[in-house]
Structure formats: C-alpha cells, structure tokens
Specification:
With 374 residues, the protein is mostly beta strands. The chain has one domain: 6 Propeller (Neuraminidase), CATH 2.120.10. The chain contains 1 helix and 25 strands. The strands form 6 sheets. The chain has a 5-stranded mixed β-sheet, with no helix packed on it. Strands 1-25-24-23 form a 4-stranded antiparallel β-sheet, with no helix packed on it. β15 and β16 form a beta hairpin. The longest helix is centred in the N-terminal third of the chain and has 30 residues. Bound molecules: calcium ion (CA) (3 copies). One calcium ion (CA) binds next to β10 and β15.
C-alpha cells in the first residue's frame, strides 16, 4: 500500500514537472512561431539556399529536383517592393543537362557564388562552385565555374580573400566522410580549380577539415558535412546531415584551421543538421534540423543547444516548417527555406505542391542587412 502511494506521488510529481516543462517550451516557442513569408508556384518546387546583397535584397536558390521540368534558378526578392522575380536560371552542366543551385553567398565585391549540386544527377564528381559576375545595375552578366571535381557542393561562404564550401559525400569504402574546403580567389583567377579525387583528400591542399557520419538506423543516411558558417572571430561551424554531428573548426593565429572538434553529437536530441547561419547579436549559430522540422541554435558563449521551434509533418501552407534547409538572419527576422524533398526517416512524408519560405520574428536586435558575419 505504502509503495503504491509513493508510486502515485512520484508519478504525480513527474507529471507536474512534465506539464510545467511542456508549458515552458510552449511559451518559448510561441514567440518564435514561423509564419508564411512566401509561397511559390511549381517553378520553385525545391527551394534551398539563401543569401542577401548589400541592399538587403534576398536571393534564394531553387535546384528544382522534385519537378525537373523546371530549370534550376535563383530567385530574387526586392527589399523595397517585396516582389519576387527570377534573377537567373542556373548554368547547365554540359554532361548532365541540369543546373542545380544550392548554397549561395555574395562576396564583398558583389560577385555571387553558388554551389551547383550535380550529385542527385550524377555522383561522379560533376558538382561545381560557380561564380556569377554582376554588373553595376545588379544584373547577372555571366556564370562560370571556379571549382570543379566536387561530389555534392552544398553550402558556400565567402570570407576575406577565399571561398569556403562543404562537400557532403566522399563515397569512400568503410567511412562516411564529408569535407570543408577553402579555396583562395587567387587559385581560380585564370581557370577553375580542380579538387583531388576523394581517395587523395589528405593530399588536397584545399581540404581543411573532414567530418564523419554514423548513419542512424531509421534513416540510413550517410550524408556528412552540410551547413557551414563562420562567427565573427572567423571560427568555422559545420554539421552533418545524416546524424546531426556538429563541429567547430577553430581559426589559428596564422589563419589556418584546427581539425573539426565535436560540439554536439547526440542524435536523440539533434539528428540532422542542414543549413546553419551566424546570428551576431546573440552570438548564436542558428541551425535547421531537417529530420524534426526544427530550428535550433548553438549558443557559442554558453556552449549549449537551444530550440527555437519545431512542428510535426505539414505542407507548410500555414508557414510552419516543412523540412527546413537554409536559415538566414535578415534584419530582425529569421528567414527559413523549406526544402520539402523527403528522404527516408524524416518527419516530412510528402513532397507536396505547397512550396514555401517561413519567417520567424527574432524581436529587436537583429543585424544590419549587410551581414558580414554570415
Ligand atoms: Ca544544405
Ligand atoms: Ca510543402
Ligand atoms: Ca511536405
């Protein structure tokens, strides 16, 4: 009898604690409830990457994998009018006949760089980093490859005199590796740089870090390095798509980078890292979790993982997350693109025909539109 009373009491206490926690989480979340920022027609059926120019205009890539009858394109939203238009269609790869822009970012000189992810068309090193030369009026003039021989070019960042990008698959026997690359502008001033084949990654002067995925049993996804960003000190953050393993690469005094060091590897809490971005005001790295329809953040100073929002399976018409991929701080808002291209084991079950971008109000204290700490 006594035991039963104790059991009841303990159970009651646990329930109260759980309810309080649920309430606390609910309160925290409601402030960050995503709203619909933009819904596209089928010409943008698989949106992915995000960036902004110095005026705060938004650019979003659409590789259009789900319905390839539409070309890969980069869309632009004019900040002043809020109107979206096609900025450019992506350069088609001569062998695959497709252009598939993913990660995008502007250099300070106004050149736009983007990842051309050919891996879903051809796994044999067809992906590239592309450069879009833009004229004084802001119109694209020409597109050319600057780095070739990539497996799956995913995220790109531009900092100082170099570009940084991730390659999500190495496809080497027995290990599920992905990499972080740094290529200085000077290396492609005359002609494109070619990376070494992955079997020789240790000799590749441009490979500055390697990450490894331990596939989860419910997903069996070996995808490694996906999202990447830098903080204001120049440290690099990178996370794996397949298992959420999240790393820092600390910048050294001579400007080189230390090997990736684990910050979080706990797939029960955080099982998939897609895009990440830096939020200077709070010194956070904002992270999308593709499996759980969640936006998380790494608080750099506290060394803790937090949750901004998560929701169940949805088509996204109400602005909720539908397999979020790239996040971007834009003024006092967080813009989140919804990839909506299901892989086994993700919450997202349907590549529905509602193609959306979400917005989360960060409250006061966003960052300037020209965000050099992307
Ligand atoms: Ca990505
Ligand atoms: Ca959707
Ligand atoms: Ca969906």
């Amino acid at each position: 009898m006594k035991r039963m009373v104790w059991a009841g009491l303990v159970c009651g206490l646990a329930m109260t604690a759980a309810m309080q926690m649920a309430e606390a989480t609910e309160t925290m979340n409601e402030r960050y409830r995503p709203k619909l920022f933009k819904q596209f027609g089928d010409h943008v059926n698989t949106p992915d990457g995000l960036t902004q120019d110095r005026h705060g205009n938004i650019y979003m890539s659409a590789p259009n994998f789900v319905d390839p009858s539409y070309p890969g394109a980069i869309m632009k939203m004019d900040k002043r009018t809020g109107k979206w238009s096609i900025f450019m269609t992506a350069l088609v790869h001569p062998e695959t006949g497709r252009g598939a822009p993913m990660g995008i970012e502007f250099a300070e000189d106004g050149t736009l760089y983007y990842c051309d992810n050919q891996y879903f068309n051809n796994k044999n090193y067809k992906s590239r980093i592309m450069r879009v030369v833009i004229d004084k009026k802001g119109e694209p003039q020409r597109i050319e490859p600057v780095v070739e021989n990539i497996k799956l070019a995913n995220a790109v960042r531009v900092r100082g005199n170099a570009i940084y990008f991730t390659d999500t698959f190495f496809d080497l026997e027995g290990k599920n590796l992905g990499g972080v690359y740094r290529v200085p502008f000077s290396a492609f001033s005359q002609c494109p740089v070619r990376l070494l084949p992955k079997a020789q990654w240790q000799q590749d002067p441009y490979c500055i870090g390697v990450t490894e995925t331990t596939p989860l049993s419910h997903r069996k996804d070996a995808a490694a390095a996906d999202g990447m960003c830098l903080d204001k000190e120049g440290n690099i953050y990178v996370g794996n798509f397949g298992d959420g393993h999240f790393y820092i690469m600390r910048v050294q005094r001579d400007g080189s980078y230390a090997k990736p060091e684990t910050l979080i590897h706990d797939p029960k809490i955080f099982p998939s890292c897609d895009g990440i971005c830096y939020y200077p005001h709070k010194n956070w790295v904002i992270i999308t979790d593709s499996e759980r329809n969640a936006v998380r953040y790494w608080d750099i100073k506290a060394g803790t993982l937090g949750l901004l929002w998560e929701n169940g399976d949805t088509d996204g018409a109400d602005g909720l997350l539908d397999q979020p991929c790239e996040p971007m701080v834009w003024g006092d808002k967080l813009i989140v693109v919804n990839f909506d291209m299901k892989f086994p084991g993700l919450l997202n079950t349907v590549n529905d025909n509602v193609h959306t971008v979400s917005v989360i109000d960060l409250g006061t204290g966003g960052c300037p539109f020209l965000n050099l700490f992307r």
